[in-house]
Amino acid sequence: MNLSLFNSVSSIMTKNTVVVNPNTIMDKVCEIFETNSFHHVPVVNADNQCVGMISKLDYFQLQDEFTHFNVSRSKITNEKFFKSLIASDVMSKNVVSVDVHDPIMKVLDILLENKIHAVVITKNNLYEGLLTSYDFLELLKQSHQQVESQA
User: Fold this and answer.
1) Residue 32 pLDDT greater than 50, yes or no
2) DSSP character string of 72-133
3) Nearest CA to 121 among 20, 55, 29, 50?
4) Cα–Cα distance between 23 and 61 in angstroms, integer?
5) Which tens digit of pLDDT belongs to each residue from 80-132?
6) pLDDT digits 0-9 by tens, 67-79
7) Which of 2, 23, 57, 110 is 20 to 30 A (C-alpha) from 88?
8) What is the distance of C-alpha 109 from the center of its chain?
9) How distant is the alpha carbon of residue 141 from its chain centre?
10) Alpha-carbon distance 110 to 130, whole Å?
11) % helix / strand / coil in the chain, to the nearest 5?
């Protein structure tokens, strides 16, 4: 991996992400968050355009307030509630996106200026992947390891 911040986002973006469509029932999205460690699920339409994003924070905010106390009724309440919603009901529609050829530094500036954690990567306005704050932490770690190995 080339670690320059001036390379294109394609060098560090996450490809082959899990996505849902706007009509995906939210209990499926819940299952995705419960069984994976990532924090963003892009909502992609039939034309492969990203039309929204659901974050793990969005998911947590929708849960019954007693979920964290392990109250048995909260599980039933959550199941019913999430089966009554679809992804387009919950997703953030104002998704920030950049082109796959844009420099990494551009995305870093966008994340910092907007205080967001993920940017959608597109090619010809079609969904290609994500670049998250976690990807920048990985880049920093690898850069540090590279410097350490040269010392």
Assistant:
1) yes
2) HHHHHHHHHHHHT-BHHHHSBS---EEETTSBHHHHHHHHHHHT-SEEEEEETTEEEEEEEH
3) 50
4) 20
5) 888 999 999 999 999 999 999 999 999 999 999 999 999 999 999 999 999 99
6) 555 556 677 787 8
7) 110
8) 17
9) 20
10) 13
11) 45, 25, 30
Q: Tokens in use for 33?
A: 């968050």
Question: Which residue is associated with the tokens 């992804």?
Answer: 87
- Write phi, then psi, for 111 (nearest 5 degrees): -60, -45
At 21 the three-state DSSP class reads: coil
- The domain limits of the chain are 9-150
The Cα–Cα gap between 140 and 121 comes to 20
- CATH topology assigned to domain 9-150: CBS-domain (3.10.580)
Which pair of tokens denotes residue 10?
A: 């394609």
| Chain centroid offset of residue 41 CA | 5
Tokens of 123: 């090619």
